[in-house]
Design goal:
Layout: H1 2-5, H2 10-36, H3 39-54, E1 60-64, E2 68-75, E3 80-84, E4 105-107, H4 108-143, H5 147-165, H6 174-187, H7 192-217, H8 222-231
Length: 245
């Protein structure tokens, strides 16, 4: 009876494996592009531009690996340079990372120009990928299949989680293949199994995002986050701040 209900052939399993790899890779890469235009990222870049633009004309910015740009200000009263701690640090995985100069000390005008380019890049990502993705998925959900609405819901939860925690929760992780793989195999069975697969995978990915969001913000996990930051290990280590999980 099970054989007549479910196709367990090797060919279908191989097709499901290939489709799982494509969905995981392109889906995660798509989330990366969308998140580059997240309103929080756009707002953060605007604040950096405002800060740099308001700095004194003689201010220098010196790149320190792992810390960011330390600020070098000339004190006319003591005729000495004062070095202040870094106030911002471009994230390595960000697509705007290469726009920031990192060799030698940089004058204010160079940094302001880099910040403006980074802001314009974020604005383009916001228009074409952030807003564009929501509009495209909404249009597909209305005109093609309501299944696209599940993808729209996952995208909305992911972007809200990122905006609140500045941490990615979906990337090429092992659990993602484990969740999507069986779902794709079931989807390829056709019929009612398509709806079951889409709803199940969407629910599991959403629960995973919400669970990790809770871990990143709840007081119950505050000790674990503090230990991770102090020892530099685990998902809450400083080196993973704002990075892909």
């Amino acid at each position: 009876m099970a054989d007549r209900l479910m196709d367990t052939s090797l060919g279908l399993m191989l097709s499901a494996a290939r489709l799982t790899a494509r969905i995981s890779f392109f889906g995660a890469f798509g989330l990366l592009l969308v998140t580059q235009g997240n309103p929080r990222e756009l707002q953060g870049t605007a604040r950096i531009f405002h800060y740099l633009n308001a700095a004194p004309p003689t201010t220098l910015f010196r790149w320190q690996k792992g810390e960011g740009y330390e600020v070098v200000v000339y004190n006319s009263a003591t005729d000495e340079e004062e070095v202040k701690p870094a106030l911002f640090q471009p994230v390595r995985w960000s697509l705007t990372y290469l726009l920031w100069p990192k060799k030698h000390s940089q004058p204010k005008d160079v940094m302001v120009r880099a910040a403006l380019l980074a802001f314009l890049a974020r604005l383009l990502f916001f228009i074409f990928f952030f807003l564009g993705s929501f509009c495209l998925l909404g249009w597909l959900a209305v005109t093609q299949s309501w299944h696209w609405g599940v993808a729209l819901e996952v995208l909305a939860v992911h972007q809200l989680a990122f905006a609140r925690t500045h941490t990615y929760f979906v990337w090429l992780r092992g659990w993602l293949f484990v969740v999507i793989g069986p779902g794709v195999w079931m989807y390829l069975q056709g019929g009612t199994f398509e709806t079951i697969a889409v709803c199940t995978v969407g629910a599991l990915v959403t629960i995973a995002i919400l669970g990790q969001w809770y871990m990143a913000t709840s007081r119950r996990f505050e000790h674990m986050r503090d230990v991770g930051r102090d020892l530099g290990i685990g998902p809450f280590a400083p080196k993973r701040r704002g990075r892909l999980w």
